[in-house]
Design a protein that fits this description.
Elements lengths: L7 E9 L3 H10 L5 E8 L3 H7 L5 E10 H15 L7 E7 L5 H10 L26 E9 L3 H10 L6 E6 L7 E3 L2 E3 L2 E10 H15 L8 E7 L1 E4 L4
Antiparallel strand pairs: 1-3, 1-4, 2-3, 2-6, 4-11, 5-9, 5-10, 6-9, 7-8
Helix pairs in contact: 1-3, 5-6
């Protein structure tokens, strides 16, 4: 395990499912090697979707391991490809790594030698749409709950300050058919909820959802957060 992974980031891109091909084409052109996609859904209700003129709440959640500067270039290229259709299409953000397995790190070194970013440097050349400060101002809250509770969960999260979220269906895996966690039986079918939050709202949101849908409730929720060091809109203007 290599612990010098500061310049490699985990890039999240959350975008409308019908625009996934745009991102995939950019990744193909830029020869991005480590990226994964899952289908999710937005948490806005149908009335809000109708007002916005959005036909579906389907979302693509893409995870990508890439160098920090290249991750920024990828987002810029996605913006260009989306063009006038980029408004409200989605958002991107990066999460710092604390380590990465050595073969992957060496592969990045071979492809393009890694260099630590200069303190305060803006690798985008001054793109006004992005956060360039090294100060952590945002967090991504991730909750894993039993299936069927996401709507209620997001109602509580919004009341605590969340702007919205994305839900992915998942399945718990264990060698035994019945998983036990702190003596609680855990259902196999899960929902993973992803919420991008400001640092100020992170604690109130987590406290509210943990109290209502934590591990001791029927939702059996596990809630945690990760620091987000850069937030980038996919809007091209």
């Amino acid at each position: 395990m290599h612990d010098s992974a500061a310049v490699i980031k985990l890039l999240f891109i959350i975008i409308d499912w019908n625009k996934l091909k745009v991102v995939s084409k950019v990744f193909e052109q830029e020869k991005v090697r480590f990226h994964f996609v899952s289908k999710g859904k937005g948490t806005a209700n149908s009335e809000i979707l109708d007002v916005l003129g959005i036909g579906s709440s389907g979302k693509a959640v893409m995870l990508c391991l890439e160098q920090e500067a290249i991750a920024t270039v990828l987002v810029q290229e996605v913006r260009k490809k989306l063009g006038p259709h980029s408004v409200g299409a989605g958002i991107a953000f990066t999460v710092p790594l604390s380590g990465i397995n050595t073969p992957i790190f060496k592969l990045f070194q071979e492809l393009n030698p890694l260099k630590e970013p200069v303190q305060g440097e803006n690798p985008e050349g001054g793109d006004k749409g992005d956060t360039v400060s090294t100060e952590i101002r945002n967090d991504v809250i991730i909750a894993i709950i039993n299936q069927g509770y996401s709507d209620e969960f997001m109602t509580v999260a919004r009341e605590a300050g969340a702007k919205g979220g994305t839900v992915i269906n998942a399945r718990g895996l264990d060698r035994q058919s019945t998983v036990k966690f702190f003596g609680v039986s855990v259902q196999d079918e899960k929902e993973i909820i992803i919420i991008l939050s400001s640092r100020e709202q992170q604690v109130p949101i987590m406290q509210a959802v943990s109290q209502a849908y934590g591990i001791t409730t029927q939702a059996e929720g596990v809630v945690f957060s990760l620091p987000v060091d850069k937030v980038m809109s996919l809007n091209s203007f």
